[in-house]
UniProtKB/TrEMBL annotation:
Pfam families: CDC48_2 (PF02933). Keywords: ATP-binding, Nucleotide-binding. Residues 42-105 form the CDC48 domain. It comes from Nyssa sinensis. This is CDC48 domain-containing protein. The keyword Nucleotide-binding applies. InterPro entries: Cdc48_dom2, CDC48_domain_2-like_sf.
Length: 105
């Protein structure tokens, strides 16, 4: 379990966790994702096309409202936070999911 996953689950190295299947996670219709300010200093251009599109392209990644994740690209790493998901608190980012990236945290 990498550092980002441990942070999202609020666990530390050495903690015991159990993993359970959650079969009812739906494909997302819309997600609102923002970069963290301190990770985009000096980064120019369109963050969606440079970071998020390649990260989510054909990968069907699950996300949860409030999750943080790190995307590497262009010799830099940018940390993002999931602000809102539709439908529900959890969803899977699919090719037809609309992503909104405006502003920063």
């Amino acid at each position: 379990m990498n550092k980002v996953v441990r942070t999202n689950l609020r666990v530390r190295l050495g903690d015991v966790v159990s993993v359970h299947q959650y079969p009812d996670v739906k494909y997302g219709k819309r997600v609102h994702i923002l970069p963290l300010d301190d990770t985009i200093e000096g980064v120019t251009g369109d963050l969606f096309h440079a970071y998020l599109k390649p990260y989510f392209l054909e990968s069907y990644r699950p996300v949860r409202k409030g999750d943080h994740f790190l995307v590497r690209g262009g010799m830099r790493s940018v940390e993002f936070k999931v602000i809102e998901t539709d439908p529900g608190e959890y969803c899977v980012i699919a090719p037809d999911t609309k992503s909104f990236v405006r502003g920063s945290l």
